[in-house]
Amino acid sequence: MGSPCHFALFDLQPGFRIDLEALGNRYRELVRTVHPDRFADASEREQRLAQAKAAELNDAYQTLKSVPRRALYLLALRGDALPLEATVQDPEFLLQQMQLREELEDLQESADLDGVAQFKRQLKSAQQRLEEDFADCWDDAARRDLAERLVRRMQFLDKLAQEVRQLEERLDD
């Protein structure tokens, strides 16, 4: 038997919409129980088990905390996992990706902080729309293809959001 489901570790029902504050609180509660300081005088075996439990909790927490990772995890629980590097069979989104990349490059070249802030707001709005769409269809086997397409879009926008944060940091320096 494998390890328990990530949701079960935190006493949550599997679902896309979760209370991130409750997740964080429960994570901190559980991780304290396996903190190395608590096992300083324990046997080597007990220390290893605590370390393994801490790693399992951390992995589960990181997965559930991240919107795209949580979405992928839910789809994996429902059936087969998405290939990590799948070609996006989504011409409309491929075009949108190219436009967003070009826009970000222009903002980088012009060092336009106001433009970056506006781009970031548009990106956040697009991410929220994707999250709503995914929440409506992830649990419906008949809409599995749509859910997978939305997850791939989420992954791209999440990566783009990270690049925007890095650009902001560079422009702030």
From TrEMBL:
Q: Name one Pfam family in it.
A: HSCB_C
Q: Where is the J domain?
A: 5-77
Is Magnesium a UniProt keyword of this protein? Answer: no
Where does the source fall among the domains of life? Answer: Bacteria
- Which Gene Ontology terms of cellular component type are present? iron-sulfur cluster transfer complex
Biological processes, Gene Ontology terms: [2Fe-2S] cluster assembly; protein complex oligomerization; protein folding
The record's section on SUPFAM superfamilies has:
Chaperone J-domain, HSC20 (HSCB), C-terminal oligomerisation domain
Single Gene Ontology MF annotation: protein-folding chaperone binding
What keywords sit in the KW lines? Chaperone
Locate the coiled-coil region(s) and give their ranges. none
Quaternary structure note: Interacts with HscA and stimulates its ATPase activity.
Q: What is the recorded function of this protein according to its Swiss-Prot or TrEMBL entry?
A: Co-chaperone involved in the maturation of iron-sulfur cluster-containing proteins. Seems to help targeting proteins to be folded toward HscA.
Please state which protein family the record places this protein in.
Belongs to the HscB family.
- Name the chain's protein: Co-chaperone protein HscB homolog
Q: Which organism is it from?
A: Pseudomonas nicosulfuronedens
